[in-house]
Every structure is written in structure tokens, then in C-alpha cells.
Amino acid sequence: MNDDSSPEATLRKRLYWHSRRGMWELDLLLIPFLEQCYGDLDEADQAAFRSLIEEEDQDLFAWLMRREWPEDPARRRIVKMIVEHAETTDNDRYRNL
């Protein structure tokens, strides 16, 4: 994260802050996805991510651990994208979050 004060950088900083959760497991899924994938998402998927991180930790945990799936199709899609990213990416640098 740099000191850029553009609207995009401000939004990214806000998203990063909201992606830091009270649960380490969620941090390990949300932050790498934000940093590595968010910028390449289309507008609808970016909106779904922004909406997703407003959810309660217990709901996020259930969805991201694949214990349940969100009912909303857009939310289900972004959750699956996050899970797939975590399963296919080496995120060792995030172990010390």
C-alpha cells in the first residue's frame, strides 16, 4: 500500500482495513484475495466483494470454510472465487498477519 491519495487508493485502503477481521483464518483468505485479485475483477464482482466484507465474521467463516454457501448468487460467486484463490495460491507471506 502506498501513499497515493487517489480515490482508487483510498477505496483500496478502506477495503484492506475492512478485510482485516477478528479471525486469522478470515484474514488469510480475504487480504491475499484483495491484494492479488480485486483489481482484476469486473465491477459486479468488486461490488460483491465490498458487500461481502460487511457481513458478520461468523457468516464469513461458515462460507469461506465451505460449511455453508450464501443464498445470494453474486455473494456465492465471490465466496467461491476467494476459496478457489486460496486453494490455488501460495500465501506463505501472509502467515504473520
TrEMBL record:
Is-annotated flag, keyword Nuclease? no
What does the entry list under GO cellular component?
cytoplasm
Query: Keyword Cytoplasm, does the record have it?
Result: yes
Which UniProt keywords are given for this protein, alphabetically ordered? Chaperone, Cytoplasm
Q: By its UniProt entry, which Pfam families does this protein fall under?
A: Sdh5
Locations listed in the record: Cytoplasm
The protein's matches in PANTHER family, at most eight in alphabetical order, are given as:
FAD ASSEMBLY FACTOR SDHE
From the Swiss-Prot or TrEMBL record, give the protein name.
FAD assembly factor SdhE
